[in-house]
Amino acid sequence: MGLIFAQLLTGLANAAALFLVASGLSLIFGVTRIVNFSHGSFYMLGAFIGYSLMQVLPGAIGFWSSVLLAGVAVGIIGVIVEILVLRPVYKAPELFQLVATFGVILVIQDLALLIWGAEDVLGPRAPGLKGIVRIMGEPVPKFDLALIAITPFVLFALWYLLTKTRVGILVRAATQDREMVGALGVNQAWLFTGVFFLGAALAGLGGAIQLPKGGADLLMDFTILASIFVVVVIGGMGSLPGAYIAAVLISVLNVFGVSYLPQSTLVLMFVVMAVVLTIRPYGLLGREEKAGEHGQVGEPELPIKPASLTIRLLVLALIALLACLPFVAPSFFTILATDVIVFCLFAASLHFILGLGGLVSFGHAAFFGTGAYVAALLVTYVGTPMELAFLLAPVGAFLLAIIIGWLCLRLSGVYFAMLTLALAQLVWSLVFQWDDFTGGDDGLVDIWPSAWLRDTTSYFYFTMVIGIGGILFLRHLAHSPFGYALRASRDSARQAEATGIHTKRIQWVSFAIAGALAGVAGALFVFSKGSVFPVELEIAKSFDGLIVVFLGGVKTLSGGVVGAAALTLVQDYITRFEYWRLALGLLIILVVIIAPNGIVGSLRKLAHWLPFGRSKST
Amino acid sequence: MLELESVNTYYGKAHILNDLSFTLNEGEVVSLLGRNGAGKTTTVKSIMQLVKPATGSIVFDGNHLNRLAPHQVARLGIGYVPEERRIFTDLTILENLEVGRQAPRDGLEPWTVESLFKIFPNLEERQNNRGKALSGGEQQMLTIARTLMGNPRLLLLDEPSEGIAPVIVEQMAATIMQIKESGLPVLLSEQNLHFARLVADRAIIIESGEKKYDGSFAELEANPSIRDAYLSV
């Protein structure tokens, strides 16, 4: 009994940092509608800055002022990010901003590496709270008790700020209808900046306050990201008490999980989330999101057109050129081109549901990884020949997409996105922790293609046929009646239903098709590399997909492919430098600011302005 | 005090306001009449800079409004009451009023929650209720009260009679008369000629974003052809 109580206390203490960070994410999303991927980076900065301050400021007062100052410092960093990176892109298509925040993650990762080095930092213990107390005979760190005591005050302070002050009232009003708040004379720009300050400061506080328990390292930005998304989704977007309850629930379960089911710790929180969302789709204390509630009606989507003859000829020429590659260039380029095609297919499949279906999935890597793992597992355990494994890989991804699609499509918008992310993480954690079966972190190796495709050149041609074939298949679907129905479901679900389109089923089928094609890409990938590791299922992989689709241009059919090709090539070049993340992050941010329509969209605009392009593009 | 000069506004390629010019003087209540889709709401939104006019100028009290942000227009003293009410349904009545509050203006008696409750007694009874608990008429009253909290020097009312019960429409007319008596000029966009005639001094009729008539109601009644051509009666 005593042990269980002590574990309960540990869970409550762990919930403190999680709640702080998650409440900041929820607040920023509520007002600005920005899913701030860089929130984990703010948390990491809070930890590092707090650590540095604690080296300088002595004693208990020093410790606690370091925590507060770290919060303020990160808040200011948040303001800088908001003003420099996000303000220029508020008018961009919805969710485009998240690409910018992804660029911020990369920049902050390298800046942290530059300043604090690659070594993990052990957090100093809190002066005055170093010992333990015995509760029912079990040792409980004093610092844990302090954390448990502090959190309700933070919750109360936030509640007071939001419900009792003018600023809080304005923030809540802006959450609902920011244009109207502006029309009533409130400068939304500063309201946004203020909210960003507060949200980032909360993340910074969370990072600094957990130092005695967790220290600081360069991976903590991504580690916390999945957890805070889960917390926000379980609690209900925008609900602070919900975030608190969810943070406690997750942390307590995690403590018990570590003790009683150590092999399931990562999986547990996603299982909880799946259960909660199945019963309450909008989280414990969330309320239903109504479409169009926020008065954000974007520009109408332009209809897509079949490619003109010129473009078709250009593409044909490009393909022919690609086919000549093995004869003219060293084999390194053939391998690179294989990677590019694989990634293009992955991006095209994501673009299919995102651009045409309007379904923003944050977890598309799950299907890519599943395709790769299904093939790898079949080869490893059953000795399946490559050809058969290659056929079964997309089937596996397809089935997974059917399950995930069924769970997620009951939701829409950001809830949909968050749930796809969490379920993808569930898949990742299963693979990561099921050592005996999947090889865990060591991955699966020795997965080579059949003899006739063993050399680089023939595998390259195989990839070309399958990859380009897949992309053309998706393109064909986009122009088919199915594609029309899908776009109709995106643009106006109600009208589509009134004309007899079963929108959910159309979306479900397209989700499954996209999953299957991502699985094909995964299978192409695993046989080209000969191995597969859990990274292929990670959040970062899903984000890569999102970045290229947005950078390429969501609203254009070729956006995904062009973006994927561009990013792979740039990345291949840029990763040769030591601080490539910094460079790539800045590049992404720059592209986002300069070309908010994506690469293809901006090229079209450019063509429109040039006299000779005008006739074609209008 | 408000002057529109050759204003052209587009939604994408659709040309909504076509060289629209009119003026509104101190202390005047002007009704902007026209059918659905004539461009009334777009006119009001163009003044607020919620949609940006492509060409033409809008001047209020000597200030050029073009290229200002909506909140800057509001701070100059233009109070906007939107068509679809757009109250904050999760906020209480008192909180809704707080969102609209702005500093008092020189030479104007500032509105307070108390003085507004005298005009809108229903709102006082329900001051701690959330917006979503209100009826359509009460919500419409709340939007007007919320905008008055900003102590405007000019009120833009976009179709206040739309979608509310006839009894409430009469109350609304009485309310607008009260506001008018306080000396506040009003631009009232309206489809309901009867309602507009009750409160307004002058009528401007637009059709397809072009001005078709600008004058008194008496003259309008003497020319039923204009009414029949541009207003659906």
N-end to C-end Cα span of chain B: 31 Å
SS-based structural class of chain A? mainly alpha
CATH architecture verdict of chain B:
3-Layer(aba) Sandwich
Q: What composes the largest sheet of chain A?
A: 2 strands, antiparallel
Q: How many structural domains can be distinguished in the coordinates of chain A?
A: 2
Radius of gyration of chain A: 25 Å
Give me the count of strands of chain B: 10
What series of H and E elements makes up the topology of chain B? Answer: EEEHEEHEHHHHEHEHEEHH
Uncertain stretches of chain A? 291-298, 613-618
Q: Which blocks of ≥5 consecutive residues of chain B have pLDDT under 50?
A: none
Q: Given the C-alpha coordinates, what overall shape of chain A results?
A: globular
Pick out its properties:
heterodimer, A: 618 residues, mainly alpha, ABC transporter involved in vitamin B12 uptake, BtuC, 2 domains, two-stranded antiparallel ribbon, two-stranded antiparallel sheet, 27 helices, 2% strand, globular, disordered C terminus, B: 233 residues, alpha/beta, Rossmann fold, 6-stranded mixed beta sheet, 4-stranded antiparallel beta sheet, 10 strands, 26% strand
